[in-house]
């Protein structure tokens, strides 16, 4: 059992019983933020960096939204569900767009292929939690 799982299972504020979906989304957002940051950095190291400008931008935008979502999901007490739903939707959209952009480069850059997969998992986790709220 990892730390995030321990914390979400023992948190007293889970009235809807969605703790498992919250945990999965927190983990997916954290992983996606890291993957997108790493992908952006790897893109900047590629010889054809000029062709990857949109990918870098998409990676960084997605990383920022994932990090924000990660933090908001970690605050369970007296949460603002309307804000949380808005942020989850924005994160899911950023992940979809970043995944699409990275897929365009996946045939030439392994880091983009991996990033696209992570973005898809995060988008799914955000949408699963949205459906449960």
UniProtKB/TrEMBL annotation:
Pfam families: Csp
Protein name: Four-helix bundle copper-binding protein
Organism, scientific name: Nocardiopsis lambiniae
